[in-house]
Amino acid sequence: MLVVIPARGGSKGVPGKNIKVLDGKPLIQYTVDLARELFEDSDITVSTDDRAIKNTVEKLGLNVPFIRPDELATDKSGTQEVLIHALNYSKSIGKEYDTILLLQPTSPFRNSEQVREAINLYEKSKDVDMVLSVKETKANPYYILREENSFGYLEPSKVGNFTRRQDCPPVWEINGALYVINVKSLLTSSISHFKKVKKYVMDEETSHDIDTLFDWKFAEFLKSFK
């Protein structure tokens, strides 16, 4: 299994967030440390376009074998292309993989037990494209989400005859913490078009993803109780 930690340098919501210090450690270190609990360094690839991120990771003792090419270093660069680039690099040094574990560095509260459980779910599932982590969403489209119609009026995002939120079917929100991906599926189809996708459910705290300054402040708040 190839572990890929994608870490772009050009964050807009929290500038420099991947190496910004959270509770005494650069953010990316939480993910690097987690990956090293479960895998050998030779199977972990940090894919970055940023030399400051590369230097930070290498100070932790993990080699960063390449800097992403320019075409994979923009805010429009797709995850799929980044993963395939990492696969191709591994192949060029004689290592081939049939599964990728994608760990984004913006999920510092995810833990090794959850990663193990998600991998076990993937391995027990027959012919699956991907296992991804989710949390139950509070913004249930049957109950509180609305879309504007062609007349400018709001209408339910998803139609259902429910008078209480508790009666609505559970709806799952992708939390971005972990993805276990079938390489064959990755090479033959867009991730967004995968049909055989299983969920791994995480709680609210371990699902916390840092995208904005508010997310960062809340992560600091959570860390203050650890």
From TrEMBL:
Gene Ontology MF term list: N-acylneuraminate cytidylyltransferase activity
Gene source species: Gillisia hiemivivida
Lineage: Bacteria, Pseudomonadati, Bacteroidota, Flavobacteriia, Flavobacteriales
Record carries keyword Protease: no
Keywords tagged on the record: Nucleotidyltransferase, Transferase
Entry superkingdom: Bacteria
Protein name: Acylneuraminate cytidylyltransferase family protein
Record's keyword annotation contains S-adenosyl-L-methionine: no
